[in-house]
Amino acid sequence: MVSVCWKAPTAPWVKVNTNGSVINNLGACGGLYRDHLGTFLGAFACNLGSCSVFDVEVFAFILALEFVALHGWDHLWLESDSSSSLLILKNSSLVPILLRNRWCNARSLNIQVLSSHIFWEGNMCADKLANFGHSVVGEVWLPSLLAKVHHEFFADRCGFPRIRFS
Q: Is the distance from CB of 16 to CB of 2 less than 8 angstroms?
């Protein structure tokens, strides 16, 4: 057994937890932004249609960068439960060819990026948002916390651990 906890970033970083979901070959993704106090800053969800799990995870990173720039934040801590997708931050040739132009544009937005892996148990807010993405059209910015994410959000903010069984 391992205890998994979401941790707030240090100031001035804004942390976004992202996740992707594929159901019947239809992809969606989501992400949730928090500041150094764990305060909710906003969230996004997106329906991508037909694509792979890797595509939705990478697209979530692209949207995370684009929304950060849109809000004028310039220090992004990107956290995901997809360790394979996090590799694109070190090697952009791993970005799927159909996403490469948008990825390059997002990386040129002058945003400092840190990244980290978190196990699924600590990424439940993003998981719920990714699943919510299946019900939206296109990309949606959420300025308030969805009711379906409240429980996980407050558990994270209070530092409650989630148990991961090996």
A: no
What is the C-alpha separation between 127 and 152, in angstroms, rounded?
10
Segment 17-59, tens digit of pLDDT = 999 999 999 999 999 999 999 999 999 999 999 999 999 999 9
Rounded to whole angstroms, the Cα distance separating 97 from 10 reads 34
If we measure between CA atoms, which residue out of 96, 93, 76, 73 comes closest to residue 20?
A: 96
Tens of pLDDT, residue by residue over 99-155, are 999 999 999 999 999 999 999 999 999 999 999 999 999 999 999 999 999 999 999
Beta bridge pairs of residue 80: 18, 117
Q: Which of 109, 30, 119 is nearest to 76 (CA)?
A: 109
Domain boundaries, the chain: 2-164
> Hey, how many other C-beta atoms are within 10 angstroms of the C-beta on 16?
28
Domain 2-164 fold: Nucleotidyltransferase; domain 5 (3.30.420)
First to last CA, the chain: 6
Considering only CA atoms, which of 27, 24, 29, 22 is closest in space to residue 123? 29
